[in-house]
Amino acid sequence: MSKIDTTQWKEFEIGKLFYKVELKTKKEFNKATDVSLIKTEEFSLPLVNAKDGNNGIMYYGRESDFEFEEMCLDIVSDGAVSTGNVYAQPQKTGVLYNAYLIKSYYPKMSEKCLLFLATIIQKTIKQKYGYENKAGWSKVKDEKIKLPVDIDGNPNFAYMEEYMQNLEIEVNSSLRLFLLV
Known about the structure:
Order of helices and strands: EHEHEEEEEEEHHEH
Structural class: alpha+beta
Distance between the termini: 22 Å
Helix content: 25-40%
Number of helices: 5
CATH architecture: Alpha-Beta Complex
Largest sheet: 4 strands, antiparallel
């Protein structure tokens, strides 16, 4: 895919696009009995944590035990390697600790747009924050990201959707060619 021309893009504060979702456990939490490293029928709710990889999901909990949200981004706030990682969480997701979820003020956010935004936000914050300088919402919300804009100067979600769709098609084509070899 060719390089994107970002000269017409506009800067937006992350906190003007997203708000932090406040999620809690619904009961007194006991890590030994209330979470599992493996997804099961009982432990089916992904819980984000200071995880590098696996989309930030380290544990699974019971939906009845944790508040959850969907169509969010997960920002890892604390972790030696994972601080500043940003993951799209389109499915129901809860928070264990050392991470938080942010949700768009724009109500019609698609999974592909979440993936696009997760990449841009991570590229903006990953090198600025670390174990000694946590990526907490009080700081991250003031960071600025450049996004494509529509004719009204708002984030162009149609462009983001189309870009990610084209990228998916390109990757799938490459994989098919690879598998044929």
